[in-house]
Amino acid sequence: MRVLVMGASLRPGSFNVTLAELAAAMLRDRAVEVDLARYAEFLVPGYDAGVEVADGVPEGARRFAERLQAVDAFVLVSPEYNASVPGTLKNLVDWVSRLKPQPFWGHHGLLLSASPRLTGGNRGLWALRVPLEHLGARMFPEMVSVAQADEAFTVDGRLADENQAKRLVRTIDGFLELVSAVRR
Amino acid sequence: MRVLVMGASLRPGSFNVTLAELAAAMLRDRAVEVDLARYAEFLVPGYDAGVEVADGVPEGARRFAERLQAVDAFVLVSPEYNASVPGTLKNLVDWVSRLKPQPFWGHHGLLLSASPRLTGGNRGLWALRVPLEHLGARMFPEMVSVAQADEAFTVDGRLADENQAKRLVRTIDGFLELVSAVRR
Amino acid sequence: MRVLVMGASLRPGSFNVTLAELAAAMLRDRAVEVDLARYAEFLVPGYDAGVEVADGVPEGARRFAERLQAVDAFVLVSPEYNASVPGTLKNLVDWVSRLKPQPFWGHHGLLLSASPRLTGGNRGLWALRVPLEHLGARMFPEMVSVAQADEAFTVDGRLADENQAKRLVRTIDGFLELVSAVRR
Amino acid sequence: MRVLVMGASLRPGSFNVTLAELAAAMLRDRAVEVDLARYAEFLVPGYDAGVEVADGVPEGARRFAERLQAVDAFVLVSPEYNASVPGTLKNLVDWVSRLKPQPFWGHHGLLLSASPRLTGGNRGLWALRVPLEHLGARMFPEMVSVAQADEAFTVDGRLADENQAKRLVRTIDGFLELVSAVRR
Prior knowledge:
By secondary structure, chain A is an alpha/beta fold. Chain A has helices spanning 15-29, 49-55, 59-69, 87-96, 122-134, 149-152, 162-183; strands at 2-7, 33-38, 73-77, 108-114, 138-139, 144-146. In chain A, strands 1, 2, 3, 4, 5 and 6 form a 6-stranded parallel beta sheet that branches. Chains in contact: A-B, A-C, A-D, B-C, B-D, C-D. Chain A binds chain D through residues 9-11, 14, 43-50, 81-94, 97, 123, 127, 130-131, 134-135, and chain D through 9-11, 14, 43-50, 81-94, 97, 123, 127, 130-131, 134-135.
């Protein structure tokens, strides 16, 4: 099985990138082939219908779609901005959705988030589910939002809290079980 | 495969019950064993923690949970009330969620809606996804909302518009394919 | 100025009722005439179009509408059930919305929540905004969700945490300022 | 009274720009001073915390914030992308929200949408409300979403359908009434 994992933050040491790396390591431990993508590989300008007509969908979005086509499932790790999805990530989704056949359709996805706040990034993930499900992605119902992320990780990038670590294990295992079943 | 189908309306001839019956017929045509439930079988009072402590979860919610446990997947057909989920259906979900093990967890679900409005019942379905996914149900991303339902059905309960009929076929087939794969 | 305040829980000592009583006390301190309503005064059966045709809108919903008509603004204090609005409260809103003229239209409202969870009841409040705004209520943008409510209140029903107490003061003062301006 | 009006589309003849121009004309008829902004004046790159630290908030977002500070209220006319807010508009909001004092706080806003779809752009507007209300903007509950926008406008940019035209008049008048009351 192959899985694309991306932390949707441009800052190298961001909590969301750290969580993406942890998820990637957990997947590799479970014999999954992981494509750990950097968000900076998919930079695109703001959506502009005029640009689309003149120049087509930009390179960054095409590249994301190709990486998505090459895997069985994807894991997005996204911060929450203003109680919703980051505009920059939604903009990438908007561009990708313009390709035909529509790249998200039928793909299985899992959403994670890390946030320094007490309340985590759960609202951002719910806002991100809507366009992805609208595009036909099959989003796993369980999502993990790591709260107080500034204290959540050990120096070697694992989750310090045992319950939270267990919850992440359970969620990833449940997701892989579903994707395996569908692949067979 | 066994599927529970319920139109969440108490009115016998309601558009949502009509659509539930159509979905049930389509499932039976695909060799699925259908439990076509009537909403009236699951009447419960408004959630009240005091009642729960004194008398436990009411009979209607227990019955719904049993029917859910006996199937591989469920189809809910729900009207939209005030741009959201009907309070009465959410209240049934609230009661059912109090049972242990939590009955929705891991169950595959599909949401449909019928509405006399031009805009259909899509917002109600999105509002209904949230608690169901929160409870761990694996909701199918595609949903069908039949708009202008007062003109949408033929006298024998099929969809008059060919494109809409095709969309319903495609959605139900996609859902069954997923549930079959997971069952194997 | 007159304000209706209701904690949407039937349990007398519930955190949401405690928070409603605190809000009511704060409003009285600001020379507002408060109608502190008990949720049990507005018990209604699950919405049923057949019942509506036969018997009209039930007494509990009519009573709520009358109380709403008699005030300049309302404060609802609601728990969160399954990441969304309690079905029982949404059901009351559904019944109230059947009255003509529609009772919520143009009324200013404020939403508060108390929850034993770390994450508070914020998602429930966002889900409650949608039908109320759909019905034309003018919901105040700021909302206060008291997290870890089992430790949040002092024995005399005030908020133990100074920052949280200040936030509630600021929100209520902002709300009253808006309602006063509109009344003039 | 001064109101900022912006259609969040870069295409000059887009339905949303047409609707923004109609709203601007209606406001001027009501003796409101209108700042009709073009979306292209506020182009910003995707949010990047590194860029923010190095170079601060980009010019486009600062300019939007200044225009917002100079008015009593704002009207945003936004398309719906993938059942949600356009990523590019959310990204502008994300950048603007980084300025201190936070520019949206306490500002009154109205949301409109135009869409060629039968179902209009209502879901996009609801998704846009969340971050704006989170940022403390006081969003007017009524919103107008012009469906089937390719046939909705007359050649001189008015709404062809009388009921829809009346609804827009009622919504704008209600909004102005509220903003006037609060200004006094």
